[in-house]
Amino acid sequence: MLTEEKVREILGEIEDPILHKPLKETGGILEIKVKEEKNHVSVKVAIAKTGTAEQIQMQSNIVNRLKNAGAATVGIRFAQLPDEVIERFRPEGIESEFEKLLKNTAIIAVASGKGGVGKSTVSVNLAVSLARMGRKVGLLDADIYGFSVPDMMGIVDRPVVRGEKIIPVDRFGVKVMSMAFFVEDNSPVIWRGPMLGKMLNNFFREVEWGDLDYLFLDLPPGTGDVALDVHQMLPACKEIIVTTPHPTSAFVAARAGTMALKTNHEILGVIENMSYFESRTTGKKEYVFGKGGGKKLAEELGVPLLGQIPLEQPYWDDEEFAPSVYQIDHPIGKIYFKIAEKIDDLIMEKEKN
Ligand SMILES: Nc1ncnc2c1ncn2[C@@H]1O[C@H](COP(=O)(O)OP(=O)(O)OP(=O)(O)O)[C@@H](O)[C@H]1O
Q1: What domains does the chain contain, in order, with CATH numbers?
Q2: Measured in whole angstroms, how far is the alpha carbon of residue 342 from the centre of its chain?
Q3: Whole-model pTM?
Q4: Which of 61, 162, 255, 295 lies at a 20 to 30 A Cα distance from 14?
């Protein structure tokens, strides 16, 4: 008759197929139950990667060994080891999904000083424009309290969970993840700093982003905890600063820029939003929110002014309703496309050097 101790001893010697360490070292034995009357053993083990061919091999190895030791029947459940355990045991040369993402993807945080200047609108439209160019693009709505990306893109679907990973929602060819997907009925998120950092971490590590050329992060406005977390978590992250032409907006945005520079993050450039209103009938431009804020900010930070976006709403399209996505043939859609091309050139240039 098999005892729990004996089962533990047998399982303990079996190696995690990815980490090549025995389960007794990885802490991968989660549960052992022995039903004496039926001589049935059921176990739950955690391994570095579930759903692989190696898991199936390991499963038959466990069954064989336990049956050889006297079990009549064996039941096995698999779970995923926590990321921190995997990191501790990861053999040299094997990259985590997160490391791969950091290495192969241009991560671009879109920041602003003041709220309401159009940071989310800019993030969404840059992501969509790069996807229109044929790039593989992700967009993480890191504005955890003030999430708005899914609504702006007209997303009604919710992400699905596959294995241990969350699959982002695809919209206009962009893989989107947002806190909005995890709260009900637009209720407020009432969290403190550390929880926000943890959520951000989950968004990077537990979302199946796949291969991406670009991952845009729509940061919360200002220089708070989340912006700081992003800078610390993603050392290679680049930044785009959004401002309106108003001097105050540019003055406050400069602080977000300074924060990026102080934490050694490169700023790709400045985008001035709500730059002017252009009359359809006369073609006359009116500088409703003042003039020159974007140019001044770009000069101050020593970076290019990537573009100026006038005031206008997208065309409303009943079939593909997305309140803040400018169509490809919309005058503003064309401006975004040009800015996206500039960003792509800048990134390609840097890759070459
Ligand atoms: N160029 C534009 N023309 C007209 N409306 C615009 C333009 N850009 C943004 N808006 C509108 O301005 C409002 C604020 O934009 P958005 O939510 O993108 O700003 P934000 O800086 O991300 O705000 P928050 O601080 O809430 O994150 C939205 O209603 C948006 O539709």
Answers
A1: 4-89 (3.30.300.130), 97-352 (3.40.50.300)
A2: 23
A3: 0.77
A4: 162
